[in-house]
Amino acid sequence: MNKAPPIVSIIIVDYKKKNPYLAECLDAIQKQSYRRFEIILICDYKIELNYPKLRQKYFGHYVGPAEKRDVGAKMAKGEILAFIDDDAFPSPDWLKNMMPHFRDSMIAGVGGPGVTPPGVSWQEAASGWASASPIGSGPYLYRFLLFQKRFVKDYPSMNLAVRKLDFEKVGGFDSNFWPGEDTKLCLDLTHRLGKKIIYDPQVLVYHHRRPILFPHLRQNGNFGLHRGFFARILPQTSLQLVYFGPSLLVLGIFYLLFLSWLNQPPLNYFHRIGWLLFKGYFLSLIANAIWIAGVSKNIFQSLLSIPIIFITHLWYGLRFLQGFLFTKKLAR
Known about the structure:
- This protein has helices at 22-30, 65-75, 94-98, 122-131, 134-137, 164-169, 181-192, 214-233, 235-238, 241-258, 267-296, 299-326, and strands at residues 8-14, 37-43, 54-58, 80-84, 88-90, 107-111, 114-115, 150-152, 159-163, 196-199, 205-207.
- By secondary structure, the chain is of the alpha/beta class.
- The strands form two sheets. It has an eight-stranded mixed beta sheet. A three-stranded mixed beta sheet has the order 5-11-7.
């Protein structure tokens, strides 16, 4: 007798009484080609919704994202937990394309890209290109655009499916971290259980961005703070040169502005090196803008990317240093 296909529990956490993107997410889930799913919506406040297969739990007060996702996992009836952000919506074959990977018992998780939706405002598009470009995200560009399949050690929960049994074995999300609870979960799955997480470009969702400038900087600054903290306490995930890049930019600019006037050996040597690196960085921003122009066919967005990415790197770098050097414990 053939076993029925697994049920997928789609878990969404929501923070607002009125979220303009939530209906877009739920509508897209209803159009999934894979029909064995349930939807679990965990909210701070009750939201009046009428969707098939939807269960909702609300607390009446603020609860952190990691705790919400853990509650959703406990409510789940499915063998697979599919986490998606409330400001994202899946492509029609999202579930269908992730399910074959779970036939391999060594696969604990499946992630896919979160692409900026078409037709968004120019402010949101600018925020998107700050991530979805080579200088914006470096080796993690595949998180924002479609790239080849690969095994990954860390993946964000905006589009991450996990086998429920494995999720329970590692104790779910660590509520002491946000953002970053997904990094800790992936570390537990790959190191404690010795299993794998795979990225598949066909496991596609569309993910709205924080518009420029201040919402965008606030989010990226939080990422920098937590990544810096992780670089100290979880070196397996975050003690990598790529994460220190923006902080080195900050320190280099500080030196050029405030110390280069000393012009004493060996500082004059660092002065020359610093200016060469700084010029190289700006040339890379220009090359990155040309790349964006070629991909987006939008000259305005390509030119805007130069100051936006520069400012983002400075703020991320400052917050990374704060997390790495000065943060003893993250606020929940």
